Give the backbone structure.
Amino acid sequence: MVALAASVLASCAAWTAQGWRASAVQARSEATHAAERDAQAQATVAAVEAAREEGKRRTAAVEKARDDATKQAAAAVADAAGARAERDGLRYRAYSLARAAIFRDPAAADGSPAGANAVDLLAYMLGRVSDRAEELAAVADRARIAGLTCERAYDAVRAVAP
């Protein structure tokens, strides 16, 4: 009976020790799993934060390119205004020369078609050429500014953040 009691007591003690050991193994496994989950969560947060920062950097780069384009467009408008003033001065000078030629040439002053028409045609053609040149210059300026802005924005967005 004593042997039976001792064997039951030893079995209970062994059973309890195995339970403690199993609990310790399970606790270590749960701790390892929890550490892995924490590491994954931190990596996810870091990745999301990096994506946000990259988005902010790209947005800032595009905004800077847009601001630069606005400044370039304003400079082009100012240059066009200066060119327009020069053109108007040249046009005024051409018309003045045309009137002076008519007054100097007695045949033109009497209404000679050859003299008056040639000078008027010259002034008219100068005006048309300068108007068309202004239109083409405006189109070229806009296209150049748009192209350079697009290129800068693409390069800035494509660049890898440091």
In short: The chain has one domain: 30-158. Residues 30-158 form one domain.
